[in-house]
Input
Amino acid sequence: MSMQLARRFAGGALPYRSHPGPGYRAAVRESPDAAVTDGPRRRDVPTGVIMVGMAAIAWWPAFTLGAWGEIFFDDILALWAASVAALVFVLVERRRLRGRLARALVLLLPSVWLALSFAAHERVTDLGVALLDLAAFAAVLVGIPFTLWVLVQIVWPDFAARTPRRSKWLIVGVVGAIVIGSFVLGVNQARFLTCEDFTISGNVAPDGCAPADTL
Output
């Protein structure tokens, strides 16, 4: 046996072990610290993505409501298109009928506003305009977060089940704070924006905006 090993070493061959020993397994095994931190970090990624996505979508309607006193039609129609697509998914998904109907009713809000707008187009009164504005506000206020939540469940089906309650409340708190902050910024737009800022960006200058020479 010793002569055979000597010949193999002399020829440049290395000894081969079909079963690596415990030292080899310990060298390639992931460290305990990495294993502990990698799991929670991966679970936190969807929470951060959803939080950023919701905030990026919800801030502009809140800002326009504060600056112009209304929500623009393109925001409402974009919400309507997303809610209709989400509604179709909710109706065909494999879940209990009761849960699907409850979500479908909320997703119908933008479509209800659109239908009321068509019905009241010929006979619009001051009360009708106020009711339509209230319906549009309710559709956006309720429809945006709920539609986004349904879209999140489409992209990450296990998000609602695997995400802790504190993470869900964190999303609600952060997005809600950004929406309120955006509305406050819209109300006080004259303090940090000028009329020319709105014009250059392609928007009509809101009432009470500050001329360029005042800032």
